[in-house]
Amino acid sequence: MKSFLFALGLVAALSTSLTPEPSISYFTNVRDLRSSQPASQNYFAVDEEIWNRARPDLADLRIYDGESQVQYALSEQRGGTSSQEASAKVLNLGSVGGRTEFDLDMFDKNTGQIGEYDRIRLSLDAKNFVVTASVAGSNELRANSATQLPPATLYDFTREELGSNPVLKLPPSGFRYLHVKLSAGILPTQVKGASTYNLQETKAVWAGVGSCGSPSQIARTTVISCSAPLYVPVDRIRFQVDPKQVNFRRAVALDASDHGYGGGGEITRVRMNRGGTAVVSEELDVPIVRDRSGQLKITVDNGDNPPLAISGVQLLSVERRVYFDPQGKSLFWLYYGDSKLDSPVYDYARFFKADPAAAQAELGPGSHNPTYRGRPDDRPWSERHKAVMWLAMILAVIVLAGLAVRGLKAKALSS
Fold first, then answer.
1. Band of pLDDT at residue 377, cut at 50, 70 and 90
2. N or C: where does the chain have the smaller number of CB atoms within 10 Å of the terminal CB?
């Protein structure tokens, strides 16, 4: 019985594969990599050559200094915003000369301090309005002298289906109190609250990929066909619309189910003047949710409106950068093209922080790795010897059956 259990354990062990390890001879492709400033942080951008030859998730990228790996960090240059909103207490809410005024107390009870802020979001129970907000800051409530901050325009175009904006944009501020005056159009009872936050913005780095054809009109829709390199990710669609065409909002749909695209969005442009107050707003980019690139059909729903004067559509890919520390050296080698590898786990990546002054390294042309020999068959023993495994399983069943029969006979004799 012990021998039988040992055999089963051996079969299980042979069925287990080991985690693939990197080796220079296992990579199909190689490029030389030259640091432009060997004493400081360097980076290079992932290009079409790498996308076409490496794993789709870039897990098989490896930088070598001779036979030794050089640690790196992969970073997407998406930019974006980060903020944490905190409630601001509304004080002295009322009407002065038919116009709503109130104070905001910016003291945060949770942190016990006044944080820096540059955005105020008002909660307004109102629709279809355009108002101007004037703002003054001070560290004393109802101070005789206060610092006048830039005015802001708040609006809601529900009737026109052109969106809304309840946010006051300010320069970075740290006043304890803000005094807000709204122009006619919002009643005190419609002011339901306020919150404050400091918006941290970093700009994304985009690169154009592929190409798009001319728009065509099909019934109430505008259709654009685009094509991008198969393995280069596409993250955004940017529309170019005649500047003379204003005050529109259109739904945008993406159709490329065979290529992993999904989602959609809308594009809008607002240029309005209500009661002497100008409203300017524009968003002509649509994000893409995708797995890979290829053919893409873009449909703009015009509804009952005239078609947009679209002069161009561009596919954009956010730049992916590989950061590394040359440690005084100038020449390295970038290897890729091993589908079995998982992403490396480097301390450098765990504690990575991009240096704004990082130098861009120079990548040589891609070429086949002259030392490539291919990864040996690292499938589990059981996968490579299926006939033996089936024989072992059949023998195991026979042995178990024999043991069961012998047990039954022994029980019959004893009774």
1. low
2. C
More confident: 110 or 174: 174
Domain 82-202: which CATH number of 3.60.15.10, 1.10.3720.10, 3.40.50.300, 2.60.120.260: 2.60.120.260
Assigned token pair, 399 = 């042995």
Look-up of token digits 């946010």: 167
Higher pLDDT, 351 or 290: 351
Report residue 18's pLDDT band, with 50, 70 and 90 as the boundaries.
Answer: low
Selecting from 2.40.50, 3.40.50, 3.40.720, 2.60.120, what CATH number does the domain 206-318 have? Answer: 2.60.120
Residue 136: strand pairing partners = 148, 179
Q: How far apart are CA 299 and CA 310, in angstroms?
A: 12
Q: Please give the structure tokens belonging to residue 142.
A: 């109802």
Of 123, 115, 172, 116, nearest to 149 by C-alpha is 172
Q: What is the reported pLDDT for 380?
A: 63
Torsion sign (Cα): 302, 307, 308, 312: positive
Cα separation values, 78 from 201, 205, 397, Å:
11, 7, 58
Ranges of each domain in the chain: 2-12+380-414, 24-77+332-368, 82-202, 206-318
48-79: burial string, b at 16+ Cβ within 10 Å, e else: eebbebbbeeebbbbbbeeeeebbbbbbebee
Confidence class for position 289, pLDDT limits 50, 70, 90: confident
pLDDT tens per residue, range 302-341: 999 999 999 999 999 999 999 999 999 999 999 999 999 9
Measured CA to CA, the distance from residue 376 to residue 373 in angstroms comes to: 9
**Least confident piece of the model among 97-111, 185-199, 212-226, 270-284:** 270-284
The answer to whether 82-202 and 206-318 have equal CATH topology is yes
Do 318 and 206 contact (CB within 8 A), yes or no?
yes
Strand 164-165: give its sheet, edge to edge.
164-165, 147-156, 129-138, 177-182, 99-105, 86-96, 191-197, 117-124, 167-173
